[in-house]
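Hi team,

As requested, here is the filled-out complex form for the adenosine-5'-diphosphate run. I kept the field names the same as last time so the parser does not choke. Let me know if anything looks off before we queue the next batch.

— J.
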Amino acid sequence: MPRQSVLVLNAGSSSLKYQVVDPLDGLVSTAGNVERIAESGMNAALTQLTGALDSAGVTSSDLVGVGHRVVHGGARFTAAAVVDDAVLAEVEELARLAPLHNPPAVDGIRHARAEFPDLPQVAVFDTAWFADLPIASATYALDAEVVARGGLRRFGMHGTSHAYVAAEAARFLGLAPTELDVVTLHLGNGASAAAVSRGRPVDTSMGLTPLEGLVMGTRAGDIDPGVLLHLLRHDGFDLDKLEDLLHHRSGLQGLAGLHDFRDLLNAVDSGDERAGTAYAVYCHRLRKYVGAYLAVLGGADAMVFTAGVGENVPRVREDALRGLGALGIEIAPELNRAASSIARRISSDGSRVAVLVVPTNEELAIARQVVDVLR
Ligand code: ADP
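And here is what came back:
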């Protein structure tokens, strides 16, 4: 293996995903997922990881660096950053904005520094691509003094994925990213939408934190802040309980008692009423964002579905976009239902908006950023 691959680490609260990928051709030499790290700790996860690299014949001399997926870069990180003590301290401080997401990433970076002391570690931020969102979409309409004091703004997440699929959509259509207005829909466990104009994002559904926007596996997405006041004042909620509700006990999980979309569809098909409601709420919210972002862009050339649900559930694509012919969107049912794992068009020839399914590849996108920042 030539010395050009990147070890990409995505450390979450319960698992450590890793991949050794060549940023030039996207070739993956080894990949895996160490589960339940909450119990055994990051040390054990790293040991398992290095064991897996050994078995795959990957040594640190094959690698140019380690790329870490970090959810929140705040206002400080508008691009990927080589990790030193100061950067690490800042990423740790940003846990204030992503209390469930940044700490495992920090833990992963610390352990990877110890494990691979001769390799540069690079933090790649989910928020970075949205750093220059227009003020109109980035700003919360709150007391300006409060906003300024807290540095409160809409940051957006999943930027690595939205940027990647927007560029891939352009490539698929034979255009440059700057020739295209596109709505990108990243539907995984977390979910977000973005409006992308001529290669730059102009709006996105996640905000200060990953709680805003679409209905997700365990998060509610958009909610009247009055609901939170009500829970605090009248329902015995304190901050910890509220945080747990918003992050873990809402969305599909809250409505149907299950957060995995496959389980949800099985429940819907077996006539489970709560699952039916959850599915309807999920699709309705998605449809609302599609409409909103078409308006934000003044019409789009393309729309992209990606991530676990976006790539694999034709029913969601169909239900979210049904009857939108007047907006230039017309799904071709047979194309939509055809199983495939590569980028494809699922709209009819007559559809003004090209509706695409584009598999995301966040690891490759992270690896490319690592190489760029080290260059
Ligand atoms: P994340 O990266 O946020 O963990 P993913 O992009 O892997 O999430 O998406 C996970 C979601 O996608 C889960 O809800 C899972 O059930 C759903 N999913 C993945 N594959 C399928 C499939 N073939 N059919 C239905 N849902 C799927």
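Two things worth flagging: The longest helix spans residues 273-297. The longest strand covers residues 28-35.

Thanks,
J.
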